[in-house]
Write a structure and sequence with these properties.
Elements (H helix, E strand, L loop, with lengths): L4 H15 L3 H15 L5 H11 L7 H23 L6 H4 L2 H20 L5 H26 L6 H10 L1 H14 L7 H24 L14 H8 L6 H7 L5 H5 L2 H10 L2 H21 L8 H8 L11
Helix pairs in contact: 1-2, 1-4, 3-4, 3-9, 3-16, 4-6, 4-9, 7-8, 7-9, 8-9, 9-10, 10-15, 11-15
Length: 315
C-alpha cells in the first residue's frame, strides 16, 4: 500500500516555511513537527485514503491531509499541556506561553492549508464547515474528559464519541467530502466505531504502564478503571482510597505488582478485550457494507495501527 505520510509531511513543512517568518516561531514549529513525525501518521493519511477510495484523483489532497495533521498536532499539544502527563514532549519542555502560541498558530495554519488545497472552492468550504463542526463536538468531549466526568460505561462512551471518535470521523469525512460528495452517514458510523475501539485499546495499554501516562496513577475514569472500581474486595480497597485522594501517589507507586494482579484477577483486562472486539467487529461489519470501502480493511488498519513503513522519518 502507498505511504501517504511523506508527502503530507512535506506539505506541512512547506506551509510552515511559507507563513512563519519569525525565526523563533519557525524554529519551534519545526521542532514540534519533527517530534510528531517520529510517530506513525494516521489522520492525514486516512483523509487521503478516503479521497482515493471515493474516486478523488488530485494530488492537491496532500495539502488537505497536511491541514488535518496540523490540527491534530495542535490538539495533541493542548491535550498534553492540559493533562500534564507528557513531560518528555518538546512542547511540554518549552516555555508555556510559546507552546500555547504554537498550538494556536498550528490551528490557524491548518485552516489556511485547507483553503489553499487547490480543490473546488465550494467543496472546500463545505469541508471546512464540516471540520469546524466536528472540532466543536470534540471540544465538548475534551471538556468532559478534563473534568473526569465519566461515571459509568454509557457516560464514558459518550465522551469518547465526542472526543477521540469525532476526530477519526473528521479525518475520514474530509477525504470523502473533498470528492464533492455530501456527508456520508455510513462512513461516519464506521469511523466512530473504529474510534471507540482505538480508544479502548489505548486504555488497555495505559492501564498497566507504570509511568506518567498510567490512567490509574492519573486517577482518570476510563472504561477499564470504572469497571475495576465497581466491585473491589477488602484487600483492594486501597484502589478506591487512591481515587478518593485519601492515599497518596508515593504510596500507590509501590503497589505496581498488586495492581497488575488485581487487573488480571478482577477480569478488567478480559473486559477490555471483549469491549474492543465488540466495537472493532462492528467497524468491520459497517465497512463491508459500503461499496467504496468494502474489502479495504487492510489499508485502513495499516494506517490506524501505524504499520506502514516510516521511511524518511527522523529518529
Amino acid at each position: 500500500m502507498e505511504d501517504f505520510a511523506p508527502l503530507i509531511r512535506q506539505e506541512m513543512k512547506q506551509f510552515a516555511g511559507r507563513y512563519f517568518k519569525d525565526e523563533q516561531l519557525l524554529y519551534y514549529a519545526n521542532l514540534f513537527m519533527e517530534r510528531k513525525f517520529t510517530e506513525p501518521m494516521k489522520f492525514g493519511p486516512l483523509a487521503v485514503l478516503h479521497y482515493r477510495l471515493f474516486g478523488g484523483t488530485s494530488e492537491a489532497v496532500y495539502r488537505a491531509g497536511a491541514s488535518v495533521e496540523l490540527f491534530i498536532l495542535a490538539s495533541d499539544i493542548l491535550d498534553d499541556l492540559q493533562d500534564q502527563d507528557a513531560p518528555h514532549q518538546p512542547w511540554s519542555q518549552a516555555p508555556l506561553p510559546i507552546a500555547l502560541h504554537l498550538a494556536s498558530v498550528f490551528m490557524t495554519l491548518s485552516q489556511q492549508a485547507m483553503t489553499e488545497c487547490g480543490l473546488e472552492a465550494v467543496t472546500v468550504l463545505r469541508v471546512i464547515d464540516m471540520m469546524n463542526k466536528q472540532l466543536l463536538v470534540a471540544a465538548n468531549g475534551q471538556m468532559a474528559d478534563l473534568a473526569n466526568l465519566a461515571t459509568d460505561e454509557a457516560s464514558y462512551l459518550d465522551i469518547v464519541r465526542s472526543k477521540s471518535a469525532a476526530l477519526l470521523v473528521l479525518a475520514c469525512m474530509t477525504g470523502v467530502m473533498l470528492t464533492g460528495r455530501e456527508w456520508h452517514a455510513g462512513v461516519a458510523e464506521y469511523a466512530e466505531q473504529l474510534g471507540i475501539a482505538a480508544q479502548i485499546e489505548n486504555d488497555r495499554r495505559d492501564l498497566l504502564r507504570w509511568d506518567e501516562k498510567n490512567d490509574f496513577l492519573q486517577r482518570k475514569k476510563t472504561l477499564l478503571t470504572l469497571f475495576l472500581l465497581e466491585d473491589l474486595g477488602d484487600e483492594d480497597r486501597w484502589v478506591a482510597e487512591y481515587y478518593a485522594g485519601r492515599l497518596g501517589e508515593a504510596e500507590a507507586l509501590g503497589m505496581e505488582a498488586e495492581f497488575e494482579q488485581l487487573c488480571e484477577r478482577s477480569g478488567t483486562l478480559l473486559y477490555g478485550s471483549a469491549m474492543f472486539s465488540l466495537y472493532f467487529n462492528r467497524f468491520q461489519e459497517l465497512l463491508g457494507g459500503i461499496p467504496e470501502t468494502s474489502g479495504k480493511i487492510e489499508e485502513i488498519m495499516a494506517i490506524v495501527s501505524g504499520k506502514i513503513a516510516n521511511t524518511g522519518i527522523p529518529q
